[in-house]
Amino acid sequence: MYDFKIALQLYSVRDDMEKDFEGTLRKVKAMGYEGVEFAGLFGKTAAEVKNICKEIGLIPFSAHIPYADMVKDNDLLKVYKEIGCEYVIIPYLVEQDRPGKPAFNDVIENAKILGKKANELGMKLGYHNHDFEFVKLGDEYALDVLYNNVPAELLTTQLDTCWVNVAGENPAEYIRKYDGRVEVVHLKDFVGSKSENMYALIGIDDDKKKEIEGEFDFRPVGYGVQNFPEILKASHEVGAKWVVIELDRPSMGKTAIECVEMSLNYLKTII
Q: What is the pTM assigned to this prediction?
């Protein structure tokens, strides 16, 4: 029905990648994923990663790279260009860089600089949201302030549909809001509702995890509350090229590998 390419954000299987980089990528390919989005290279060189992906038949189309690392290292983007990535993504902002803090203005200006660097290398810079961008700065959400202040040619969206929903907005409608700027959409499912210390579940503030277990949890795609038929319809309408399955941590008593396979199998039934 749709012609999206389907990728996996490899953060979903980070422990497996740490233990067996190439073996995990082979499992991902065998499941039926067409591409991968990196979240760390686990000590591999760009040439090694490029060759492994080529041999396996996976497209290394994108990578999440820590914002501070990109700002600090002028040559870091070249590493991902060598791998073959089309997109380089700001994945997360630490608290001092978030909306409402003085450094958020620096994020906006640095996104312009990084976007130009990416374009010069034949790549595109993107931004992957969480829910903390859905605070109002004046009359606008901070996420909209970011996109309104950085030209579309310098910063593409990578809307994380889970966090859009958690923030209280309709993911499909938010995708449509950025028609023409949406090339990659993150598909993530969950149960429960927003609660304090949620980021303990994505490996941040681990000591607070017990405080929220049972209130909110991630799920394989298709096993939570998200309306993926509508999300995919909206993604198609705006011309998205890739949809990316992401699971911040395994659930339902399954391993991470089992969860990402369940997610892909579900997605194949509706795509």
A: 0.93
Q: What are phi and psi of 158, to 5 degrees?
A: -135, 80
Radius of gyration of the chain (CA): 17
Mean pLDDT of the chain: 94
Type of residue numbered 67: Y
Residue ranges of domains in the chain: 5-191+220-270
- Give CA separation, 155 vs 24, 40, 66, 114, 217, in Å: 31, 21, 16, 9, 30
The helix/strand/coil state of 218 is strand
- CATH number for the domain formed by residue range(s) 5-191+220-270: 3.20.20.150
Model confidence over 96-127: pLDDT tens digits?
999 999 999 999 999 999 999 999 999 999 99
19-51 core/surface letters (b: 16 or more CB in 10 A; e: else): eebeebbbbbbebebbbbbbbebeebebeebbe
Convert the pLDDT of each residue in 46-83 to its tens digit: 999 999 999 999 999 999 999 999 999 989 999 999 99
What is each CA distance from 59 to 5, 85, 86, 141, 263, in whole angstroms? 10, 8, 10, 34, 19
Quote the CA–CA distance of 8 and 270 in Å, as a whole number: 17
Cα-flanking dihedrals φ and ψ of residue 243, to 5°? -120, 140
With CA atoms as reference, report the closest residue to 231 among 181, 165, 134.
Answer: 165
Distance (Å, whole) CA 60 – CA 122: 15
